[in-house]
Write a structure and sequence with these properties.
Elements (H helix, E strand, L loop, with lengths): L11 H16 L5 H8 L3 H14 L2 E3 L5 E3 L2 H28 L2 E8 L2 E8 L14 E2 L5 H7 L4 H11 L12 H14 L2 E4 L6 E7 L7 E8 L8 H19 L1 H6 L1
Antiparallel strand pairs: 1-2, 3-4, 3-8, 4-5, 6-7, 7-8
Helix pairs in contact: 1-3, 2-3, 4-8
Pfam families: HTH_IclR (PF09339), IclR_C (PF01614)
Protein name: Glycerol operon regulatory protein
Function: May be an activator protein for the gylABX operon.
Amino acid sequence: MAEAPAGNGGVQSVERAFDVLEIMATAGNSIALSQLAELSGLPLPTIHRLTRTLVSLGYVRQLPSRQYSLGPKLIRLGESATRLMGSWSRPLLADLVKSTGETANMALLDDTMAVYIAQVPSEHSMRMFTEVGRRVFPHCTGVGKALLSQLDDETVRNIVSRTGMPAQTPFTMTDPDTLLADLELSRHRGYSVDEGEQEIGVRCFSVPVHGAPTPTAISVSGPAARVTLDSADHIVPLLKRVAKELTAQFDDRAALQV
């Protein structure tokens, strides 16, 4: 039987399968077929066929409760995609290091934590270094706050209620309302600042990377003596330029036109 075409010229069943995966990802834990049908707007028999196929392929799990969740086979795909994102970003991060003299990072939001997926270190002997793959609390880091600034307040509250807001330094924000006010300021000015909130004596400027498949951010960080508040006038425009270039790489429409 021929596949029904989607409105954009794609294959309808493939689009529906990915819609189901996206709904499951948003649900977070597990979800019933009836909920999938309601949220997708598809008939229950169609949802049943899609999930049965995805279960057989390992991309979805059926739980003893008869609900469904994302399957383990997606982990390998996610890890490969993360490595690719890191490799795509490194040349642009290197440009940031060349222009600012300080360490440049890229991170994404993985459930409730910020995860560094790429870094190009400064050539200074005194520099910031973060291992790729390191997971940090989002409420006290520049990249973390740039990630949270892309979410609504209710989602942010949910995240910090699950992680807590432990104080890494005396400057760490530990109150959700204070954090939300800081995120609103970040959205207004277009960048986030870590003022020694993760590590004393370190300052970090960070901006969101829009258009990525998951909340993503890039940053420049270094000793506060070198990365001064006034240096934002030089660093932030460079960060925003690189973020736009990264966004272009995630733009599916642009990719289709190549």
